[in-house]
Amino acid sequence: MQPSKMYLQEHNPHVTQLEQMKIWMHEHPVEVKVSKVAIAIIGAGILITLPFIAPLLPGVAIAGLALTGIVLTITFTVSHFLLHYFIRPHHDMKNHVFTPGACEGGKLYYVGDLPVLSLDSDPYKAGKAHGYLCGEAINQIVKSFEIDLGLVVIRFLKSANTLPKTLKEVRDTIPPQYIREMEGLVDGYRCWAKEHPGHFPKELSLDDVLLLHLLPDTLHFDLHQLEGSGPSAPIVVQDSLVACSAVLEKDPKRGVVFARALDWPSLGVFGTYSLVIHRKGLEGQVDTVDIAVPGLAGGMLTGMNEAGFSVAMNVCDGRKTENIGGMPACFYNRMCLEKCTTIQDLREMVAKIHPLGPYHLTAADPEAAASVHFYQDATNTQHVIRDLTPNNPLMTLNFCYEPTPQKSICHSTERQKELHRFFKNRGDAPLEHCLSVPYVNNWSTMHKVVMEPQTKTLRVAFDNAFASRAPLHTVPTHALFRKATRISFVGS
Hints:
The protein is α+β, with helices and mostly antiparallel strands. It has a domain at 3-87. The chain has helices spanning 3-11, 17-27, 29-53, 59-87, 123-133, 135-144, 152-156, 164-171, 176-195, 206-213, 223-227, 329-339, 343-352, 413-424, 477-480; strands at residues 101-103, 106-111, 114-119, 240-241, 245-251, 255-263, 275-279, 288-292, 302-305, 310-315, 359-364, 369-373, 384-387, 394-397, 400-401, 445-452, 457-462, 473-474.
């Protein structure tokens, strides 16, 4: 039995009825599709045949059939959008959605059922290969922002042209090579769009791509207010404030084990189009592997470099960013991965370079691990760092189910209870099984990632929801990484 299903069955009393319904619908896509098609066929059939049978029926019956057909047709239409954007369709990684290919700057291919985009070190060429090879995925992701079902996140991503001053200030904080990579991505996507007019490709600008990278910062960063165009509403993610989970421990055989679940609204496509991005480092930098979605050219959310150093971010609330004094989280994470090989390197970097605003950054090397909580001390101006200690897992769980909002740095009552239950009854279960417990594995979980810095082992699973129920796939890190060289952070 899959660990996730086992835990869901054991702990269903701790999960709301709505959550149980979402779990069932996500785990039974065939039944849901059959029901939707049946509703559509019956509704359309009634409306199509009604003109022919109307003369044979009394008026009351005609009115009843007409109303039934209309209701069923509306039900099908509404359910289609609700299931796609709120329940989120299941994505089986056995269904390959990317078209393998190669061009100057990179190649896209599958290792088993795992999509891998391998990019060269030249930033512009790498970005152009990214945009061209992943053009269809980027097009689908951009189109998913067009349908506004009350999600502020979608309206936010449609506002790039209204924020010229603020986005320029943001660009000035980002290393030039990342900007070049995003420029290449836009040009590569436009090349793909010219070759595929039948896909009705959407327009994409550099500011659009930059805005996508700013999504993790939107809980503390009001771009419209800084622009002077008035305050914008905070991003509301349906019925709960979502953020990721990070759980680490020191295993006597495996070394530091880093179990991570990424939560974010998939809009029905982000999980489907997730992939592994391998980047060859510039001179003096290590190679990196990033678990991301197409379009994130200059930033990352979860990754490992060829020294085994691994990082993952959790979004969080905190002090409100009133001026742009640091680079956005995605780019900061990438810089950490490219410049650091140990936790000590990370400490030196955090002391010298600060990100745009508050979030949690958890990192591990082969011997140690720590969570950095940016701007989360009592004054909201300094950073809190917690280290992994023996016989005590290091957990960052800033998740909250309504109606109990929390402002704690790294504590979720719901997730903490379930993880306490897991560790109490764990037995010989590996750490990664903790990602399958309720509230950790939830309707917004897109990625399940397990990293082992000591052996440079990296395993992942993607889905549009409840990703921790999916089987893990091994990333071929030893084939991707060149021989690691010790690189100390020099503050540049």
